[in-house]
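Quick one - inputs below.
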Amino acid sequence: MIVVLKPGVAREKKEGLIQWLERQGLQVHVSDGQFQTVLGLIGDAAHVDMDLVGSLEIVDKVSRVTEPFKCCNRKFHPEDLVVSAGGVPVGGGHFAMIAGPCSVETEEQIVGVAKAVKAAGADLLRGGAFKPRTSPYDFSGLKAEGLELLRVARAETGLPFVTELMDIRDLELFADVDVIQVGARNMQNFDLLRELGHCDKPVLLKRGLANTLRELLMSAEYVMSGGNEQVILCERGIRSFADYTRNTLDLSAVPMLHELSHLPVIVDPSHATGLARLVPPMALAAVAAGADGVMVEVHNDPLNALCDGAQALRPEEYEKLAAKVREIRKVVTA
Amino acid sequence: MIVVLKPGVAREKKEGLIQWLERQGLQVHVSDGQFQTVLGLIGDAAHVDMDLVGSLEIVDKVSRVTEPFKCCNRKFHPEDLVVSAGGVPVGGGHFAMIAGPCSVETEEQIVGVAKAVKAAGADLLRGGAFKPRTSPYDFSGLKAEGLELLRVARAETGLPFVTELMDIRDLELFADVDVIQVGARNMQNFDLLRELGHCDKPVLLKRGLANTLRELLMSAEYVMSGGNEQVILCERGIRSFADYTRNTLDLSAVPMLHELSHLPVIVDPSHATGLARLVPPMALAAVAAGADGVMVEVHNDPLNALCDGAQALRPEEYEKLAAKVREIRKVVTA
Amino acid sequence: MIVVLKPGVAREKKEGLIQWLERQGLQVHVSDGQFQTVLGLIGDAAHVDMDLVGSLEIVDKVSRVTEPFKCCNRKFHPEDLVVSAGGVPVGGGHFAMIAGPCSVETEEQIVGVAKAVKAAGADLLRGGAFKPRTSPYDFSGLKAEGLELLRVARAETGLPFVTELMDIRDLELFADVDVIQVGARNMQNFDLLRELGHCDKPVLLKRGLANTLRELLMSAEYVMSGGNEQVILCERGIRSFADYTRNTLDLSAVPMLHELSHLPVIVDPSHATGLARLVPPMALAAVAAGADGVMVEVHNDPLNALCDGAQALRPEEYEKLAAKVREIRKVVTA
Amino acid sequence: MIVVLKPGVAREKKEGLIQWLERQGLQVHVSDGQFQTVLGLIGDAAHVDMDLVGSLEIVDKVSRVTEPFKCCNRKFHPEDLVVSAGGVPVGGGHFAMIAGPCSVETEEQIVGVAKAVKAAGADLLRGGAFKPRTSPYDFSGLKAEGLELLRVARAETGLPFVTELMDIRDLELFADVDVIQVGARNMQNFDLLRELGHCDKPVLLKRGLANTLRELLMSAEYVMSGGNEQVILCERGIRSFADYTRNTLDLSAVPMLHELSHLPVIVDPSHATGLARLVPPMALAAVAAGADGVMVEVHNDPLNALCDGAQALRPEEYEKLAAKVREIRKVVTA
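Output:
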């Protein structure tokens, strides 16, 4: 950590700060410039409250030298992580096609969609049993019954599945789920993250609507520091002032997260745009940007879907998209 | 709900949509303009998926006529709600001064701060026992012990207290808490909100970092539709591209929320700015904007605070601020 | 335009508004619902101040039925526009590779880069003679001399060039420029836009840092309504809360602009990311998203570039990128 | 400037960078930590391209020690600047009430409003003769005739006036204007700013919709570095994801700008909210936050205003507001 003092700071105040920093267990290197003094802190500054130091009257600014995340930091893990998602490898050159309906509705629906996306080349099935809804009056999922239907679809097709856990009290219902999804709204539900750090399932962690990459990585750190290193990051659109799309898909997050971390990074173009007709171009763009997978909503009857039908592709549309995804992937990895 | 069709839509497609809408239980008024057709939907359109309709190929745009929130909608509740926060009235002309440390640390600290803020005129004590922290390596609160210390401070001073619940599994520990706070990161933790709808304590609901006013009100709706109508809204800064402050305090939310809803609206200038020296001007601004209360962090030893010391006022600073708050309040309500 | 009145509005007030709207030359269709009244306005509502109507005490909300842009609206121009950029077609299936240095520095530099990017397959040269710089102390371009050097590079390579006009008073210096660029900071410099509406050169209009798609299209409308229909739109990153990239490249703007307008849409990944190493993945993503061209900064000596060296590719890097761009383009248009 | 190198950088690369930095005229202090090397640069680093250095493969991050603005930096100008706005002092304890219509429309209108706001206590008249409009089809001001009508209103009331200059070619028409306003959309029209640096009139510089405080100060620097030090800063709302207000008024900018700079800071609550009924609370909040003035739109017939009637107060509403502004100001400065 580096601390820049304001010009003309009284000597006693400077000494006072240096002594306080030393009491936190840090070595302080003082460098007096013509105009300002710079303190370089050596030692483990991760526990020092940077905001507090920055707010002191005599301090001009503070900046971190090292990132506050460790378990998910590529500096300490130069090799890409390959997550095993119910046997399907994700990351480190393994590309994952994840597809399925927003919500699980009936056995016929989920099994039908699962078969269709499998035929189109999907590796993993997605489907929501517990649905976060902005309004308390909207359909919020079939819950335990939905999980059961996902198991049926898995048995019928062999596709492992990813599904969202919203409430920590439901964790035991997820015992044989293949990948547990943490939704964007729960990205900083720290108790939930901590609990998932103690389980042995891969976690698909969605970036919150207004969360920075550092915050996303710190949330991955919550899971990983508990012992569970199987984390997949997912970009799904951020909130901006967009007027025609629901969110703004931030694809530069893909190469930047790969630079910062060794974790796999996938993209969800369905939630980002909210419009089925924007999903194919944005899915292809995600692949071109280097994503390790794309998660796409597919529904056999979007007009009658109980949730988010607007953003779901029909199976035949997904099939066409999947073919192009594979071709773009070939160009990217050539 | 109003649905505008694209120009030149084929007659059968238009008829198909109208029939589909009628099957959802709505009456459809068709108005053919020179250039475009407009469908006016009459009946309870709250359950119709507006995004889905908007995404149809033949639809140009869709707009809601009525707000999706009911319990907290001023249209149905013209009178201001007065919430009783441990006996202290908030809203409807009753202004609440809430103050205390970010985290509860020791009995001496919390009792000391409680006495000081009471002397300065505070009506309610705040203090965190469970602390949401971006990093898993940071101090996350004294938990049950912290709640116990808050009870001690209440006993010593008579001040009721507000404290944050993060994990739904801890709810029973909060049995004699005066006001339960839902933090910004949990504003859309819908299971938590639903559970709080069944309890009999006032809920202080903080606006999420990137949540719109409508989303905030929909979260209040989650609590209220469960039967608990005692909700206080709290603006605490939104995320923008700000370079010198932590967040951007959105004070126009105060009069706008008052227009949309009958719930009390308070402001937390400490988290919004992250800098103690910006807290007094922004607290006064909040009062001038018509807030029903201000919640301010106060610590007797900010430099050694375990959390967010950078934004805490010292008791003597709070005392000065509190005096000015009262004067501004007098001007505003004159 | 549709106007929704508040519930329980007095009859005289409603009549007053209807009469006022009729005086603006509109026909008003009144539709009284159970709960609220909706007014449908027929006629040219483009000149009615929607914000004013929306602010009236008796009005609940107002929404537009038709977009305020006409010249650039795909509804009236279903065929893609092909712009001739100094003889190079852009749009409507014609993909443009635009490359060159941020600033023109010396004859050797600009001619060298021009030859290199031509060899790599570029169709158009870019280079700044007038540079907008946040700081008055930074290098702001060679000005007239820079334009002269661009002409030399064109003569040597046959590549037409695009360069930015900042000050309307310099317009005559641009007489033989092939494409005039309007920078992001000038996207709403309305006098400049109006003037360009009277000239006969293609205009490359960059989206402002915080401008919506509608605002971008309204700025195109300024140029086009003056008679100059040769406008190319350019997405170059928007401002968000991004922590590791300079801006957030909004690629969903590409398919959405194509839906709203018939104008060609290109992407500038260099300014969006500010980091050379992110340019290739984001350029490929732009192509995959359906862009009609990509504009990339290339410099033969980035470390000593006078401006924005951080985001420039070296010629050999550009060559590799260009080859992949062509392959992705093939997949997209297959 | 401080440069942090990546861990494990090869010695030759480190030496190469140090030599390059020294060639830029800087002294480099090397501090080798356990894990990373930190370079402290001494000398005038203002001309070094921080982004370029940050993008180098061996560099982890770069941070500025000193701000890039000088003329408007409070560090070098500890005393508040008092600007003379046509004889009216602004800043340094002098509070300015600025009021008037969005656009000048007729002599009767502007003289009528000027008399009314003067009676209510306004110090300066505002009124637009040249109006920036998002749509080319909207009323764009009376231009030279509007300036003439402002002169008439000044002659009748003695109030100096502030009015916006959009096109640098119109500068000579502004010869006897009291304060020249630079609108939000032109905040980074650098040629315009540079030209204003050579004139002898106070400049009221509005913050752009998505500009940081540093960018605002750098724009002030453009004017001041040309020799004209009479700059007033104006916060007028930033763009966020707000759903019910036009923009988000960023009042924490007021104390923060006062900390960073000695220039006066005023607030425009009318454009920020776009709604007349939100103007009074936000104007009072601005005063409470410490603004040196508030600029408010007032119109004698808002319903028939040619521009932005939605946000204009009627004269009698302004009178009430002005009285409260004075009372709040008394509390703040007590």
